[in-house]
Amino acid sequence: MAALRLEVQKLKNYINGKWLDVKESQAVINPATGMEIVQVPLSAAGAVNTAVKAAKKAQKEWALIPAPQRAEVLYRIGYLMKERKERLAQFLTMENGKVIEEARGEVQEGIDMAFYMAGEGRRLFGQTTPTELKDKFAMTQRSPVGVVGIITPWNFPIAIATWKSFPAIVAGNAVIWKPATETPIMAYELAKIAEEAGLPDGILNVVFGAGSVIGDAMVHHEDIRVISFTGSNDTGRNIASACGKQLKKVSLEMGGKNAVIVMDDADLDLATEGIIWSAFGTSGQRCTACSRVIVHEKVKQALEERLLAAMQHLSIGNGLDESIKIGPIINQSGLDKIKKYIEIGKDEGANLLAGGYELTKEHQKGYYFTPTLFTDVSADMRIAQEEIFGPVVSIISVKSLEEAVEVNNGVTYGLSSSIFTNDVGRVFKAQRDLDTGIVYVNAGTTGAEIHLPFGGTKGTGNGHRDSGVQALDVFTEWKAIYVDYSGKLQRAQIDVES
């Protein structure tokens, strides 16, 4: 497949419907080839002020447009994304590295989100409720927050952005978006689509730049009333602290240390498929990736044999090649982190069954790491506790479902978990007791659908959710409304007859 080429050599910020040049920039590197794709701007903090000024003005008019009409723009965005799905997917693979079938799936997720949230334009429901007094009416409704700041990661550069921006837009807000500098092309393409779809100037603004500059300016800007962030725990904690001091709403989706539980009655062939896909898809660079396999001791050896056999058939290379199943790591820093954890695992006494090394000969220009399998891992080892963000899996043996659940829950994260079993009793106990925001039964730890809430417990987040109707709670405020048509002053509980 011949790779596409961008029509520009350097991207520009998109603010108030205009494409604005920025002097400073850096190269965006294709992780599969090591070659430069485009230059991404490194904006100064002042660009945030410019964007917020435009967004604040535009949002006041946007909020007055009926929600079903706002939704019509999202429908048009969805149709344009659908028309350009292959273009978007190829550019996504070029800048991110994930294999083309995964890139198409991610773009489809954005398309689905456009249509789903457009539907919410006719379902921004409030409630009516009885009141305590005669001749009085009470109801609730959602109101937009105002200007919203979203900060998105490189591993899902278009899907996560749509999870955040589309509910914000349909609810009547304006958006300032800081994409990851590693993967800016999706932001450029989505901004062009929004412009063509007729989204009013100032409602979606894209400001490229470093997180320490642009992200920090967004977090501390008094007119940005919501920050929605997906990324590392350390950065998320800093954002939460800064927003807390300003009484600013913040939604955090951070890391995961996700596990697949395989019980002794499981379909081992199905479990193997689920583990391989959720562990090594996207080269393990998903917050929902499987990095632990908690297996019943009775089937541990049989499962290991199946996993080793399946891993031999995983082709590694440039994701634009349809035959490739495993793409590159995002950059050298990502590779270095994975290599560090391989040594940690060895030092801790884990048994390295397969992989564990960087591919340097046949893949000299890209960043590639072999799918890796450790066994005889104890639950307290660092490789079983800390997020590696690469194609590395640790096998932990247990004697019972109760022990498996305890091991699953014994980490600081709580995003996704999975159990393979044919026992309905175990299924219901697991879905009740697994302390994660997402639970899969007889499937891997990945594969979330956009109409369900996405997020987790403990160190994974702060209680809010991306995606699903629940995402609207991040970008709206509840307003309680009382209408008294009695013609006299009624004083609520004071005048209620007991």
Question: Tell me, what is the CATH class of the largest domain?
Answer: Alpha Beta
In CATH terms, what is the architecture of the largest domain? Answer: 3-Layer(aba) Sandwich
CATH superfamily of the largest domain: Aldehyde Dehydrogenase, Chain A, domain 1
Low-confidence stretches: none
The main β sheet shows up as: 7 strands, mixed
- How much helix, percentage-wise, in residues? 25-40%
Total beta strands = 23
- Domain unit count: 2
Task: Summarize the topology.
Blueprint: E1 13-15, E2 18-20, E3 25-29, E4 36-41, H1 46-64, H2 67-83, H3 85-96, H4 100-119, E5 127-129, E6 136-144, E7 147-151, H5 159-170, E8 174-178, H6 185-197, E9 204-206, H7 211-220, E10 226-230, H8 233-245, E11 249-253, E12 258-262, H9 268-280, E13 290-296, H10 300-311, H11 332-348, E14 351-354, E15 358-359, E16 368-369, E17 372-375, E18 392-398, H12 401-409, E19 413-414, E20 416-420, H13 424-433, E21 438-441, E22 457-458, E23 476-484
Parallel strand pairs: 7-8, 7-10, 8-9, 10-11, 12-13, 12-20, 13-18, 17-18, 20-21
Antiparallel strand pairs: 1-2, 3-4, 5-6, 6-23, 14-17, 15-16, 19-22
